[in-house]
Automatic annotation (TrEMBL):
<keyword id="KW-0119">Carbohydrate metabolism</keyword>
<feature type="binding site">
    <location>
        <position position="298"/>
    </location>
    <ligand>
        <name>Mg(2+)</name>
    </ligand>
</feature>
<protein>
    <recommendedName>
        <fullName>Phosphoacetylglucosamine mutase</fullName>
        <ecNumber>5.4.2.3</ecNumber>
    </recommendedName>
</protein>
<dbReference type="InterPro" id="IPR049023">
    <property type="entry name" value="AMG1_II"/>
</dbReference>
<dbReference type="Pfam" id="PF02878">
    <property type="entry name" value="PGM_PMM_I"/>
</dbReference>
<feature type="domain" description="Alpha-D-phosphohexomutase C-terminal">
    <location>
        <begin position="499"/>
        <end position="545"/>
    </location>
</feature>
<dbReference type="Pfam" id="PF21404">
    <property type="entry name" value="AMG1_III"/>
</dbReference>
<feature type="binding site">
    <location>
        <begin position="522"/>
        <end position="526"/>
    </location>
    <ligand>
        <name>substrate</name>
    </ligand>
</feature>
<feature type="domain" description="Phosphoacetylglucosamine mutase AMG1">
    <location>
        <begin position="322"/>
        <end position="460"/>
    </location>
</feature>
<feature type="binding site">
    <location>
        <position position="300"/>
    </location>
    <ligand>
        <name>Mg(2+)</name>
    </ligand>
</feature>
<feature type="binding site">
    <location>
        <begin position="400"/>
        <end position="402"/>
    </location>
    <ligand>
        <name>substrate</name>
    </ligand>
</feature>
<dbReference type="Pfam" id="PF21405">
    <property type="entry name" value="AMG1_II"/>
</dbReference>
<dbReference type="InterPro" id="IPR049022">
    <property type="entry name" value="AMG1_III"/>
</dbReference>
<dbReference type="InterPro" id="IPR016055">
    <property type="entry name" value="A-D-PHexomutase_a/b/a-I/II/III"/>
</dbReference>
<feature type="domain" description="Alpha-D-phosphohexomutase alpha/beta/alpha">
    <location>
        <begin position="57"/>
        <end position="96"/>
    </location>
</feature>
<dbReference type="GO" id="GO:0005975">
    <property type="term" value="P:carbohydrate metabolic process"/>
</dbReference>
<dbReference type="InterPro" id="IPR005843">
    <property type="entry name" value="A-D-PHexomutase_C"/>
</dbReference>
Amino acid sequence: MANLEFPPQYTRAGNTTHTGEVHSIPQDEQFAYGTAGFRFRAEKLPFIVYRCAYLASLRARQLDSAIGVMITASHNPAQDNGVKLVDPSGDMLSSQWEIYATEVINASDADLTKVIRDFEKNFQRSSQSKIARGLIHNAKVVCGIDTRVSGPHLMEAARAGAALFNVKFVDIGVVSTPMLHYSVKSFNEPEFADPTHQGYYDAISGAFKKLYEMTQEPDGSRYQPELIVDCANGVGAPRFRELLKQIPKEMLSIELRNENGELNHGCGADFVKIAQKMPANFILTPDAAPEPKCASFDGDADRILYFRAKNGCQYGTAELFDGDRIAVLFATYIKEQLDIYTASKPRNSLKMGIVQTAYANGSSTRFVREHLKIEPIIVPTGVKHLHEAASEFDIGVYFEANGHGTIVFSKHFDSVVRRNASPLVHLRRLHLFSRVINETVGDAFADLLATEIVLRHFGWSMDDWNQKLYQDVPNVQIKVPVADRSIFKTTNAEQTLVKPDGLQKRIDEEVAKYKDSRAFIRPSGTENIVRVYAEADTLENTHRLGKSLEQVVLSIGSA
Ligand code: 16G
Ligand code: ZN
């Protein structure tokens, strides 16, 4: 059992921030492990990170594996921070352990020892017998931080938490969230990649370069290898700069912007998506080259959007090429390779699936159904739900419209494509493409490289990518503050409200007033607000519908 002497600076009473101030947390304040782990103002986090790392060490012992601790608050402002745990295969923490994490964090200082002792009994038998037989070799806690000032201090809290149970602690420094996921998998599956920054760069850029060599640009190609990337002033800046050192300029010529300013301030994928505006330092003068290809990362580089200036740069409006459009691009490429394969080996087919959320633009969903002949799976918001649903397929493409997404591959895919050194070009392409992708989690760097390869393969410019797939239906998202978001309950992958009573009927009545319309209302999982999403035939009607639904929510909130 762990030695449970808690350093005072990591207790609720003595919780000490990176500036050395004591910021006590009330003994009864409750927290929940949400879709993003625990995420708050940084001063709340030292005791939370400490307890999370302890829990990670327990899980590491239980599974005799590396477990990840990522300290980041993604697209939130610089003053925030957060922590989430990563399971051995690089996946998100299992749901059962999210409940444990919530219990352990919510204990008062006085109750903590008892909560932990009770909890240790749960898994004691199996892991203790392993320990007794000397079978704990690989247990370790692997911890990464993003670029926030509170990061190094929280890394020390994590180190102290892991030390409680005497589990090896590996500090991998400043990394993107996907790099941490990738490293955890690499520690546990050494054949996957070397568990270092360089190991990650080599694996992903190596696959990119080989696939590049095999990719023929078609005659009349309009593909452009030039790209400007908004790094959100986050971890994408230093880490992507390093990754790019591995890729010759003739293959990809990338200019990085927003590298050293205020994190996520007026820039980054979340800003661009919600504001539908060009980020800071992208508003070009009217005489600048027209509409260069741009992409934006979020603060921890697990999301990416492409965009370009709309109707002349000076107005600052951005035209988005969002997660849906990236997913459809990837799926179109994969389908082309798969169709060739299936024609030659009909009995050994590989099944591709596409997973979206209710936020997916209606046109993208229609395109997948009608042109790719795949029925998209719609799941509730949150990467975990998408990842799980995608794992049912040999090739599971999933993306949230906000730019978080990746592709997962089955064991059957491994044996047919990766382990079989086939001379067939389409299988080799699929193999290399699956290695450019970071299958553990959505990864802005990997998704960018994969997007560029596919655009080059098709010979597409931004215009082509926009016009040859589908046209987005106008859409709007509105945040509505409410007193208590827990009264809003949804079903049907968040597309239908079941509570409060009668509200869905009012939504349906509003939606029926517009052509080609669709809308839903769901409580946010990360803020005390309700989100309204609406689509209609014109932008004007979309705004009208959105506004009227906002009023519907407000009438309930104030009732
Ligand atoms: C979290 C989720 C993200 C989702 C967002 C929705 C993960 C790792 N992140 O950031 O996927 O889009 O929440 O936020 O699952 P909302 O519930 O406030 O709309
Ligand atoms: Zn993020």
